[in-house]
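Quick one: examine the sequence and fold tokens given here and explain what the tokens say about the fold. Here goes:
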Amino acid sequence: MDFGYFCKGAYLAVDLVRTKGWYSGTERLTPERARAVLQRYGHERRVTKNDLPRLFALRDRLRAVFTAGDDASARRAIAGLLADFPARLDLPAGGEQSMTFVPAGGDAVSWIGANAAIGLAFFVAEYGAARLGICNASDCDDAFLDESKNRTKHYCSVGCSRNENVRTFRARKKLVQQ
């Protein structure tokens, strides 16, 4: 079975985890940023300042999936998210060849939690938990999904990869000059 469509919630999880500068400690999650993340996934949900504590807690739990380190721990963390953010399967009428998951809660945090948990569950089922990662750049801690053919992704972006390669090159050059 191709889980590609259902894995898009994993990208939602990455986007939410990236709303904090984990390396610098910079907080970037605001109601406006949360609405922008939701809009990127085609949903209009109301997000208020009162939702932020739940979003912070959800973001920390999602990050724990990326930092789990082993398959069993990642799966347990995802199972906990699925239990706390339940959704029901919806099969459209009219013979359409699709299905969707509808979060049990109608608020924005429930929608994000359910979709991110389902996306991570499908992603791990398809690729394994080893394909969830945290950037190896010395000044970055962003989450990423490794969809490379050879399973060798170590950075969240081309920019982080390039910057880290430049740092390594300069450090080697400095050692040679000494």
Summary: The longest helix spans residues 108-127. The two ends are 57 Å apart (CA to CA). The longest strand covers residues 87-90.
